[in-house]
TrEMBL record:
Topology relative to the membrane: Multi-pass membrane protein
Record localization: Cell membrane
Listed name of the protein: YitT family protein
Signal sequence interval, chain numbering: none
Pfam families xref list: YitT_membrane (PF02588)
UniProt cross-references to InterPro entries, sorted A to Z: UPF0750_membrane (IPR051461), YitT (IPR003740)
Source organism superkingdom: Bacteria
Naturally occurring in which organism (per UniProt): Shewanella metallivivens
Transmembrane regions listed in the UniProt entry: 12-30, 42-69, 81-101, 107-125, 172-189
Keyword flag DNA-binding: no
Key words, A-Z: Cell membrane, Membrane, Transmembrane, Transmembrane helix
Keyword Cell membrane part of the UniProt annotation: yes
């Protein structure tokens, strides 16, 4: 199947828009001390355990996964993911300069925050990018073994959010689970094998011209 390709400036514009959506989603989460899954969730948990900001932690957590993206997926995907992670790391830390949230209902923060992050991830996937980290692993498993990225993400998020019970109140975890479910349902429905998505380009077979068939 031939998938559409994008020019570099189209990727940059799309990844910037996706970064804005994800950063707004994380800002809604932070307004009620909620947690999300994936590497973003690990970065949020790390905020409560260290003095580092979300942006710094999010960037650091993603670094080891670039090797998988570079060797198992594609160079373009790795570069685009690095761009996405960098945009989100910077924008999330500086979002309070432009947007100040005084009061938002926790249920709204959980569901709409999850929706914003999920739609942002879909835009990234369709421009050969991701949120990095566990998202890279999810895309690799989907491309290699046809395991839906949304289903794998839901499993990982369940583990992360269940572990957060040791650190956060039960009501916070319940709302966070609702947000994670919204996020992963969006991805599971809209990002399936065979559709317009991030994928591994098949290697071209070596030419057999001039070779003895024996």
């Amino acid at each position: 199947m031939q998938f559409p390709t994008h020019r570099f400036y189209e990727d940059i514009m799309a990844l910037f828009c996706a970064g804005v959506m994800v950063s707004l989603g994380v800002t809604l989460y932070n307004s009620n001390q909620l947690i999300t899954g994936g590497t973003a969730g690990l970065a949020i948990i790390g905020m409560h355990m260290t003095s580092l900001s979300f942006g710094v932690l999010f960037f650091i957590v993603n670094v080891p996964f670039y090797y998988i993206a570079w060797t198992k997926l594609s160079k373009r995907f790795t570069i685009n993911t690095f761009i996405s992670v960098s945009i989100i790391s910077v924008m999330t830390d500086y979002m309070p300069v432009f947007v100040h949230i005084d009061n938002v209902h926790p249920l709204f923060a959980a569901t709409v925050g999850g929706m914003l992050i999920g739609v942002g991830m879909l835009i990234m996937f369709r421009h050969k990018s991701s949120l990095g980290g566990l998202g890279i692993l999810a895309l690799y498993l989907q491309n290699k073994y046809s395991i839906r990225a949304g289903n794998f993400g839901l499993l990982v998020d369940t583990i992360i959010l269940s572990s957060s019970l040791l650190m956060f109140p039960i009501e916070v975890v319940i709302l966070s689970v609702m947000g994670a479910a919204m996020l992963n349902v969006l991805i599971a429905i809209n990002h399936k094998p065979g559709r317009y998505q991030a994928y591994v380009e098949p290697k071209k077979p070596k030419s057999t011209v001039g070779l003895n068939p024996e």
